[in-house]
Amino acid sequence: MISTNIILTGFMGSGKSSVGRVLAKELNTYFIDTDNLIESFENKTIPEIFKEEGEEAFRAKERYCFNWIKNNVKNTIISVGGGFPVFVPEIKEAGLVIYLKVPFEEILKRMSDEEIKRRPLFQDIQKAKELYVKRDKIYEKLADVIIENRNLYSTVKKIKELTCK
Ligand code: S3P
After folding, report:
1. How far, rounded to the nearest angstrom, does the alpha carbon of residue 115 sit from its chain's CA centroid?
2. Which among 63, 136, 142, 165 is placed 20 to 30 Å from 89, CA to CA?
3. pLDDT tens digit string along 47-59?
């Protein structure tokens, strides 16, 4: 069992949810994903929210979600959307922040067409690359720990070593 929330950050497609699910199972705790929380709360998909209400409205929902997590969630693995730390920089107030770093070219190789389709800010590859460069510095600055996520199970092992003393 862990004694704090573990918050996984990183660019779209960096494996936050995959790592989070396996980690939660191994640590015998729950996993939540802020995109899923927002989708269930709004009863809409992320692309629908972006299309119908715009990015600014989505960011306000992320902020609301953060406040809810801070007040209600304990000892849980939390994966946040790629833009979350940028728009909610006080993210550390809710737990230990781990940046899962993956080179942009590697992300491109790993993502399926279906996964790209679900992400409104990944529709233009050049723009996504620019976003990656800008955000990488922000993720680094806001992280307690940075892990190069080369392989799911070795990343899970590293996080377990760090958090289960
Ligand atoms: C976004 C990342 C997405 C989702 C939304 C916006 C971003 O989450 O929150 O499409 O701004 O990087 P993932 O990082 O899980 O893809």
Report:
1. 15
2. 165
3. 999 999 999 999 9
Q: What does the block give as tokens for 43?
A: 């009863």
How far does residue 47's CA lie from ligand 1's centre (Å)? Answer: 10
Cα 108 to ligand 1 centre (Å): 15
E strand or H helix at 31, and its extent?
strand 31-33
Domain ranges of the chain: 6-154
Q: Check residue 164 and give its pLDDT.
A: 80
Whether the model pTM is above 0.70: yes
| Cβ–ligand 1 contact at 12 (below 6 Å) | yes
1 pLDDT tier (thresholds 50, 70, 90):
confident
The minimum-distance atom of ligand 1 relative to the CA of 83 is 11
Q: What is the mean pLDDT of residues 70-97?
A: 97
Identify the residue whose tokens are 């199972």.
25
Q: Considering only CA atoms, which of 101, 32, 96, 37 is closest in space to residue 63?
A: 37
Structure token pair of residue 85 = 């730390």
Considering only CA atoms, which residue is closest to atom 4 of ligand 1?
81
Architecture of the domain spanning 6-154: 3-Layer(aba) Sandwich (3.40)
- Asked whether 10 lines ligand 1 (CB < 6 A), one says no
Report which ligand 1 atom has the smallest distance to the Cα of 17.
15
